[in-house]
Amino acid sequence: MNKLHVLLFLMMNLLLPAEGAELKFVTHDFPPFSYESGGTLSGAAIDIVRQTCSEIEISCPIELLPWKRSQFKVRRGQVQAMLVIGWNNKRAQWLSFSPPLLKTQYGFFVNTSNPLDYQSLSDIAGAKIGVLESSNTFDHLNEIRQKMIESKLEPISIQEIHDNTQVFKMLDNEGRNIEMIYSNRDVGNTVITQHNLKNVRYAGPNEELYYYIGFGLKHTDKALVERFNSGFIKLQRSGVIQNILAQYNLEGVEPD
């Protein structure tokens, strides 16, 4: 083997991931994106990860944990990625992000006895609003509260919650200390359907956004992340990702 062949061989081996390459993922109970059903992890984001990992032929174990613990494990490098997650400046300091998986929106849910048709911040002046703790929705709701203060509107009061399902059941039972919930639209509608809640409805959107996979910057192989993202884009361009999302009545993103 001459020197040129040796050099090409070494370069190819550097570019290829090591045998048995693995990305460990963590998620939380967040239907329709990720949830446990009959002892098996399911959901649109779970299906996307599994399909992408199959496409690029790597192992991708996924663990379901509470949201705070999920973030802790990625920060510590015990797992490499978390899903699904919205982008914000604070997260961008310790995470890199996949291409957007899907398009969704944040908005307000109310008891059916509440006539709210949300159009502007003045519609929620002084309201008591529940929101998932340590979440992007919590950060956005805090921003809403600050905007209300700056606009001389009576600010909302925020009630942090740790269980989406439980708070929607509370709202179904005429609120019990909250007047509305600030949540992802698709999550809220799924909880309402799954638990047959008759007295909760979506009162309107506040913001549209994308959801991503977040990869820990400090402890994750960049080449493996790039390989995953390339595999995802390939499936997106071939329509596979859109077909997965359609099964859950979710909105896809047009590939670049």
Account of the 3D structure:
38% of the residues lie in helices and 24% in strands. The chain has 256 residues and is α/β, with parallel strands linked by helices. Helix 2 (44-56) packs across helix 8 (222-237).
List the helices and strands and how they pair.
Layout: H1 3-15, E1 25-27, E2 35-37, E3 40-42, H2 44-56, E4 62-64, H3 67-76, E5 81-85, H4 89-92, E6 95-97, E7 102-111, E8 128-132, H5 136-150, E9 157-161, H6 164-172, E10 180-184, H7 185-194, E11 200-216, H8 222-237, H9 240-247
Parallel strand pairs: 1-4, 1-5, 8-9, 8-10
Antiparallel strand pairs: 2-3, 5-11, 6-11, 7-10, 7-11
**C-alpha Rg (nearest Å):** 21 Å
pLDDT average, as an integer? 89
* Poorly predicted runs: 3-18
The first-to-last residue Cα distance is 42 Å
> How many E-type strands?
11
Helix share of residues? 25-40%
Main sheet characteristics: 9 strands, mixed
What characteristic shape results from the CA principal axes?
A: globular
Q: Given the structure, what is the number of helices?
A: 9
**Helix and strand composition category:** alpha/beta
Q: What is the chain-wise order of helices and strands?
A: HEEEHEHEHEEEHEHEHEHH
Task: State which percent range the strand residues make up.
Answer: 15-25%
